[in-house]
Recover the amino acids of this structure.
């Protein structure tokens, strides 16, 4: 299960990097469109912060301190800066999940939610689904902003067989 979650999370973070690269310039990820509540840049920052906090800091002890408000209020980062945020999140996820003792999956996640404990396994699955959900929103945002229907191959089935494909 742990290897599977790591594979999915890293696959989708790689796809997020491809999505960012497909924006034609540094302004496009921040372009607002009616009916789309967040820009691609905002969602990319949110995903990086979310994973660095919940996986890197909480499970891996990286020391990362999340500023969720800044994830949604900061604008104008370059594609290179967004990509660096995503790459750091991928490194935190990879390092943490590679070292995580599988027995911890059945333990309560270190933080409670609404005063309730959640098994670590279930919360990691939630984080993977959360990433994929927002990855789809970023793909839609990019296509709406640019008019370019180029696919980023976001949900690569070959990557399930050969991680890193």
């Amino acid at each position: 299960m742990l290897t599977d979650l790591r594979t999915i999370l890293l696959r989708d973070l790689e796809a997020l990097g491809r999505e960012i690269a497909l924006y034609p310039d540094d302004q496009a990820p921040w372009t607002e469109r009616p009916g789309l509540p967040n820009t691609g840049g905002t969602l990319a920052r949110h995903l990086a912060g979310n994973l660095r906090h919940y996986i890197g800091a909480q499970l891996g002890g990286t020391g990362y301190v999340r500023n969720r408000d800044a994830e949604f209020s900061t604008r104008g980062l370059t594609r290179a800066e967004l990509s660096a945020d995503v790459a750091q999140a991928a490194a935190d996820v990879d390092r943490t999940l590679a070292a995580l003792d599988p027995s911890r999956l059945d333990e309560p996640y270190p933080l409670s939610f609404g005063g309730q404990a959640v098994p670590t396994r279930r919360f990691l699955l939630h984080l993977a689904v959360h990433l994929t959900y927002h990855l789809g929103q970023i793909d839609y945002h990019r296509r709406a902003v640019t008019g370019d229907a180029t696919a980023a191959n976001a949900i690569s089935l070959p990557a399930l067989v050969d991680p890193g494909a």
User: Anything to note?
Assistant: The chain has one domain: 2-161. The chain has six helices and no strands. The helical segments are 2-22, 40-60, 68-73, 79-99, 120-146, 158-161. The chain has a mean pLDDT of 94.
